[in-house]
C-alpha cells in the first residue's frame, strides 16, 4: 500500500515510526519546507556558529501512559535526545508529578522529529508542498505546487486543520458535515523572537527561563537556550534568548514590520540586555490548538483513502496529543490491511 504522509512534523514522524518495518506499507513524506520538525522547530544562527534556539515546542510534558507512549519516551531518552527537566530552573512553571513529567530536547526540539523520520525509513521529500487531492475508488492523486502528480492508496494529512482548509483543494470537495466539524478547529497565532549574542557574552540571569507572572505581559515566556538544554550550572556560555509573545500580538504584521515593536517590549522588560548580533522574528500563524476537533477519536477519516490527524485530534494540543493521534491513526491504518494478511515486519525476516 502506497501511503503519503503530508507534513514532516512530529505527528507524521510518529506514525511512520509506529509503522516502521510493516512491509505492506511504502511510506512517503511530503514536507513543504527545507527541514523536518514543523512546530517542533529549532532556529540556528546564520552568523554565530553553534547558537540555536527552539522557537516552537519547548517542553515535552508526559501525561499519557500507554505502551506506545512508553516506547516513544524510552526511544528518545535512549538516543539521548530528551532528558528530564528541572522545573526549578524555569520560573512560574508548573512542577511535575507522578502523572506528569517534563522533558527537554537536549539538542533542539527538531531533532526529535528528524530522528523519528530517520528511524522509520520512510522516503522523505522536502520542498514538496501539497496543493490538491483528487480521489476516486482507484486511489488518490496528490499534486504539489509545481503541478507534479503522484498516485497513492492512502493519504494522511498531519498539517494544522485551518491550514488544510486554506491551502488544499479536494476533488470531490469534503462532504458538508465533515467540513463544518473541521471548521470548528481553531489555532492561535503568536510571534517568537530569538536573540543571538556574540561569542562569550554571559547573560546575567539566575534562571534558565520564565513564564510571565502576569497574564497581560506582552512576553509570555522566555528562555536562555543553553541553560534550558544543559542546566544552569553548565560551563557553556549563555548566548541565546528566545521570547514568546502574547497570542495574536502583532500577528497581522509581517515579521519585518513586527520586529521593532517586539524589540521595544524586550527592551522594556530586560533593560540591561545588550544589542544582539542577530535578532530573528518568527510568526507562528498556526501556533497552538485553541479549539480541538469535536469528539475526536484521534483522527478523522474523510473516506477510505484520506485521513486527517495531528495535535488537534488528541486530548491535548501538544507532543502527547500528537502521540495519541499518531498511535490511534497507526492502529486504524493497520486495520485497513486485508484481514487475512498477517502484519509482517522487517524484523520477521
Ligand atoms: C510557539 C509554540 C510553543 C509550543 N510549545 C509546546 C510545548 O512546550 N510543549 C508541547 O508539547 N507542545 C508545544 N507546542 C505544540 C507542538 O509544537 C505541536 O503540538 C507539534 O509540534 C505539532 O506537530 P504536528 O506534526 O502535528 O504538526 P506540525 O508541526 O505543524 O507539522 C506539520 C508539517 O506540515 C508541513 N506542511 C504544512 N502545509 C503543508 C503542505 N501543504 N504540504 C506539505 N507540507 C506541509 C509544515 O511545514 C510542518 O512541517 C508549541 C507550539 C508552538 C508553535
Summarize the model shown:
Keywords: FAD, Flavoprotein. With 349 residues, the chain is of the alpha/beta class. The chain contains 8 helices and 23 strands.
Descriptive account of the structure:
With 349 residues, the chain is an alpha/beta fold. It folds into two domains: 2-46 and 110-185 and 292-348, FAD/NAD(P)-binding domain (3-Layer(bba) Sandwich); 190-284, Polyamine Oxidase, Chain A, domain 2. The chain is 25% helix and 28% strand. A six-stranded mixed beta sheet has the order 9-2-1-13-23-22, covered by helices on one side. Helix 1 packs parallel to helix 3 and helix 1 packs across helix 8 (319-336). It starts with a strand and ends in a 13-residue tail after the last helix. The mean pLDDT is 94. Flavin-adenine dinucleotide (FAD) is lined by residues 6-12, 30-33, 38-40, 56-61, 129-130, 158-160, 163, 167, 190, 192, 244, 284, 287-288, 310-311, 317-319, 322. Residues 99-334 form the Amine oxidase domain. InterPro entries: Amino_oxidase, FAD/NAD-bd_sf, RNLS. It comes from Oikopleura dioica. This is Oidioi.mRNA.OKI2018_I69.chr2.g5110.t1.cds.
What gyration radius follows from the Cα positions, in whole Å? Answer: 21 Å
Which band does the percent of strand residues land in?
25-35%
Tell me which CATH architecture of the largest domain applies here.
Answer: 3-Layer(bba) Sandwich
User: Bound compounds, please?
Assistant: flavin-adenine dinucleotide
Mean pLDDT: 94
Gross morphology is globular
Domain Amine oxidase: 99-334
Protein name: Oidioi.mRNA.OKI2018_I69.chr2.g5110.t1.cds
Organism: Oikopleura dioica (Tunicate)
Keywords: FAD, Flavoprotein
Amino acid at each position: 500500500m502506497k501511503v503519503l504522509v503530508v507534513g514532516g512534523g512530529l505527528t507524521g514522524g510518529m506514525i511512520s515510526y509506529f509503522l516502521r518495518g510493516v512491509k505492506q506499507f511504502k511510506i512517503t513524506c511530503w514536507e513543504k519546507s527545507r527541514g523536518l520538525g514543523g512546530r517542533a522547530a529549532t532556529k540556528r544562527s546564520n552568523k554565530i556558529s553553534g547558537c540555536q534556539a527552539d522557537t516552537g515546542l519547548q517542553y515535552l510534558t508526559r501525561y499519557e501512559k500507554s505502551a506506545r507512549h512508553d516506547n516513544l519516551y524510552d526511544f528518545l531518552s535512549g538516543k539521548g535526545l530528551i532528558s528530564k527537566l528541572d522545573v526549578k530552573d524555569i520560573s512560574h512553571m508548573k512542577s511535575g508529578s507522578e502523572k506528569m513529567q517534563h522533558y527537554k530536547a537536549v539538542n533542539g526540539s527538531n531533532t526529535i522529529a528528524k530522528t523519528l523520520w530517520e528511524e522509520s525509513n520512510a522516503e522523505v521529500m522536502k520542498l514538496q508542498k501539497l496543493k490538491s487531492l483528487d480521489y476516486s475508488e482507484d486511489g488518490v492523486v496528490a499534486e504539489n505546487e509545481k503541478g507534479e502528480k503522484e498516485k497513492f492508496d492512502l493519504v494522511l494529512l498531519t498539517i494544522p486543520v485551518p491550514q488544510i482548509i486554506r491551502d488544499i483543494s479536494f476533488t470531490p470537495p469534503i462532504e458538508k458535515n465533515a467540513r463544518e466539524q473541521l471548521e470548528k478547529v481553531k489555532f492561535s497565532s503568536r510571534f517568537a523572537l530569538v536573540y543571538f549574542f556574540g561569542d562569550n557574552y554571559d547573560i546575567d540571569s539566575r534562571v534558565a527561563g520564565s513564564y510571565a507572572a502576569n497574564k497581560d505581559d506582552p512576553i509570555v515566556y522566555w528562555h536562555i537556550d543553553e541553560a534550558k538544554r544543559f542546566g544552569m550550572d553548565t560551563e557553556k556560555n549563555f548566548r541565546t534568548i528566545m521570547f514568546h509573545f502574547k497570542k495574536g500580538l502583532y500577528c497581522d504584521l509581517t515579521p519585518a514590520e513586527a520586529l521593532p515593536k517586539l524589540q521595544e517590549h524586550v527592551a522594556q522588560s530586560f533593560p540591561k540586555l545588550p544589542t544582539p548580533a542577530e535578532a530573528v522574528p518568527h510568526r507562528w500563524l498556526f501556533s497552538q490548538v485553541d479549539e480541538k476537533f469535536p469528539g475526536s477519536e484521534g483522527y478523522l477519516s474523510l473516506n477510505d483513502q484520506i485521513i486527517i490527524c495531528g495535535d488537534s485530534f488528541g486530548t491535548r494540543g501538544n507532543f502527547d496529543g500528537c502521540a495519541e493521534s499518531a498511535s490511534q491513526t497507526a492502529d486504524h491504518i493497520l486495520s485497513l490491511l486485508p484481514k487475512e494478511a498477517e502484519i509482517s515486519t522487517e524484523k520477521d525476516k
